[in-house]
Amino acid sequence: MRFPGSSPRFLRRQPARFPGAKDGFAIFSFNGYRRSPVNICLPSQFIVLENIASSNAYAMENFDTLADASVIFAENQTAGRGRLGRKWHSPKGNIYASFVLKKYPFMPVYAAFAICLAGLKTMKTLAPSLDFQIKLPNDIICENRKTGGVLCEIRKSSAGETGIVAGIGLNINSTESDLLETGCHASSFFTLTGKEYPIADARTILAQNAFAYFSRDENKILSDFIGNCKMIGRQVAVSDGGNAVKGILDTILSDGSALVDIPGEGKRKFYSGDFLSV
C-alpha cells in the first residue's frame, strides 16, 4: 500500500514483535476525555516512510484514513519540527515517530507525558548505564544535553471526534557534526556511547514502551513523570512569552500544569513555557 506524498519503505502489521498481539487490535473505549477503563493496546499499523516532511505532519494530514493506534516512523524528515514550530534537524539514523490515538481516554497532556516516558525508557534500555532524565516541558536529556523531544497535537476527524497525534524524536545515531545542526546543546546514543544502534530495533523498543504507557492510568503516568523529572524541587526560570520568572518547581499537578513557588508571590501554575535550571 502506498500513501500519497510518501516513499514507504514498508507497511505491515507486525504482531510477532508484540507478544500477545492479535489482528483486530483492541484499543480504548472513549467518550470525550471521560475516564474509562484502560486496556492494553497494541499497534494496528507499523509504518516506516522513507522521506516525508515530518511524521507528525503526515499523521495529521492522513488522520481520517489511518487506523487507530497506527505508528508512523520517518527515515528522514525534510521539515521536522518541535514545540512552538521550532525546527528539528532530522538526518537518517534516528527515531522520528508519531502515534495516532483516536480514542485516548484521558486529557491530551497525559499522552504527552506517556510518550515522553516511553522515550525515556527507550534510551535507558539502549544505554542502561547512563542517567537519562526528563526536562520540562517535553525534553529527554543526558548529562544536560538534549537527546529527545516530544510534540503532541490535537486533531479532529471529519466525523468531529477529537484525537491525538503523539510525536517524538530521539537522537540515536547522530554524530557530533549532525548535532551541531540542531542549534541546541544535544547528544545522541552514538555520541554518548561511541556505538551505533540498529534503528529498526530501537523503533520496536519505542513502540512497545509507548503502548505500555498509553495503557496506564492517569495517576501512574503522572507519578512516573514526576519521578523522572530532574527539575522537581529545584530552582528554575520559566519563560512563557514574557519575562522569565524564578522559583522552586514544586510539582506537576493533575491538570498537567507545573506548580512553581515564586519568592514574594507564592505558588503559580504554568501550563506552558520554557523551563531552565538555575
Description of the structure:
- The chain has 278 residues and is α+β, with helices and mostly antiparallel strands.
- It folds into two domains: 8-228, BirA Bifunctional Protein, domain 2 (2-Layer Sandwich), CATH 3.30.930; 235-277, SH3 type barrels, CATH 2.30.30.
- It contains six helices and 13 strands.
- It has helices at 55-61, 108-126, 176-180, 189-193, 199-214, 218-228; strands at 8-12, 45-52, 70-77, 95-101, 132-135, 139-142, 145-156, 162-170, 235-239, 245-252, 258-262, 266-270, 274-277.
- It has an eight-stranded mixed sheet with strand order 1-2-3-4-8-7-6-5, with helices on both faces.
- Strand 6 and strand 7 form a beta hairpin.
- The longest helix is centred in the middle third of the chain and has 19 residues, at 108-126.
- Mean pLDDT is 83; it is low at 1-40.
Strand-pairing-aware structural class: alpha+beta
Superfamily (CATH H level) name of the largest domain: Bira Bifunctional Protein, Domain 2
Report the strand count. Answer: 13
Portion in helices: 10-25%
What strand line-up does the widest sheet have? 1-2-3-4-8-7-6-5
Supply the number of structural domains. Answer: 2
Top-tier CATH class of the largest domain: Alpha Beta
CATH architecture of the largest domain: 2-Layer Sandwich
* CATH fold type of the largest domain: BirA Bifunctional Protein, domain 2
Outline type: globular
Mean pLDDT, to the nearest integer, reads: 83
Q: Which residues sit in consecutive blocks of at least 5 with pLDDT less than 50?
A: 1-40
